[in-house]
């Protein structure tokens, strides 16, 4: 096997790879923000003690966590246009799917973070006359976010890796950019190897940063 990476240059990267990298990063950021927001709501529903909130949230979380992400991506991409009668595009489909899917995982992270807060602080807030919403907003959630920040960031790194699955519906992510470049220059093996190296470097660097952050949080505690 004769590998040749000499065809890589800035023009190739800017024309093929950067477009896909931008979409992968954008999808990661949007899915993280949306996933944390809806995941927090799901976590509060599961901890509310009210069955009419707990049961549907539990079914949703357990259901999503039991299905492979690529299946959810394909189902949404194929079924939703058939239901509404018009296509929504691979990129929009990917964004909605990732938010819906990641919300289930962020929900469990946030639920663990909320439950890690000593009950004494909750009782102290109640003694001061705070409502349930005020207690969550001012006392519990800020501490839960701090405690769970390393885990949230780790899940975000996994999310970034999972963005490569949008390849299944033809969305132009970073992996797709490398594939197109490889096909255009007749070097698909080199293209996939370069994609693997870039994924590894980015994810390893982010993981190292998360580890350092976790150490600082541990010192603060």
Automatic annotation (TrEMBL):
Subcellular location(s) per record: Cell inner membrane; Cell membrane
One of the GO BP terms on file: amino acid transport
Segments passing through the bilayer: 20-45, 66-84, 90-107, 151-172, 192-210
InterPro entries: AA_ABC_transptr_permease_3TM, ArtM/GltK/GlnP/TcyL/YhdX-like, MetI-like, MetI-like_sf
ABC transmembrane type-1 domain span: 21-210
Key words of the record: Amino-acid transport, Cell membrane, Membrane, Transmembrane, Transmembrane helix, Transport
Keyword Membrane assigned: yes
Any one GO cellular component localisation term in the record: ATP-binding cassette (ABC) transporter complex
Membrane topology: Multi-pass membrane protein
One MF term in the entry's GO annotations: transmembrane transporter activity
Physiological role: Part of the ABC transporter complex GltIJKL involved in glutamate and aspartate uptake. Probably responsible for the translocation of the substrate across the membrane.
Xref: NCBIfam families: HEQRo_perm_3TM
Subunit note: The complex is composed of two ATP-binding proteins (GltL), two transmembrane proteins (GltJ and GltK) and a solute-binding protein (GltI).
Family, as annotated: Belongs to the binding-protein-dependent transport system permease family. HisMQ subfamily.
Name assigned to this protein: Glutamate/aspartate import permease protein GltK
Species, as recorded: Acidovorax kalamii
């Amino acid at each position: 096997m004769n590998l040749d990476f000499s065809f890589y240059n800035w023009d190739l990267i800017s024309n093929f790879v950067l477009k896909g990298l931008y979409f992968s990063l954008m999808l990661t950021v949007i899915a993280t923000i949306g996933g944390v927001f809806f995941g927090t709501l799901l976590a509060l529903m599961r901890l509310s003690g009210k069955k009419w909130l707990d049961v549907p949230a539990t079914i949703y979380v357990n259901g999503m966590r039991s299905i492979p992400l690529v299946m959810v991506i394909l189902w949404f991409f194929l079924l939703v246009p058939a239901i509404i009668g018009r296509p929504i595009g691979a990129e929009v489909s990917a964004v909605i799917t990732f938010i819906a899917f990641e919300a289930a995982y962020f929900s469990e992270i946030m639920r663990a973070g909320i439950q890690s807060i000593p009950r004494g602080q909750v009782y102290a807030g109640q003694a001061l006359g705070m409502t349930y919403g005020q207690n969550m907003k001012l006392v519990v959630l800020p501490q839960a976010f701090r405690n769970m920040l390393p885990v949230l960031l780790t899940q975000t790194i996994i999310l970034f890796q999972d963005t490569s699955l949008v390849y299944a519906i033809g969305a132009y992510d970073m992996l797709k950019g490398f594939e197109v470049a490889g096909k255009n220059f007749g070097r698909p093996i080199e293209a996939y190897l370069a994609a693997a190296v870039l994924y590894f470097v980015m994810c390893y660097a982010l993981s190292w940063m998360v580890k350092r952050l976790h150490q600082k949080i541990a010192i603060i505690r």
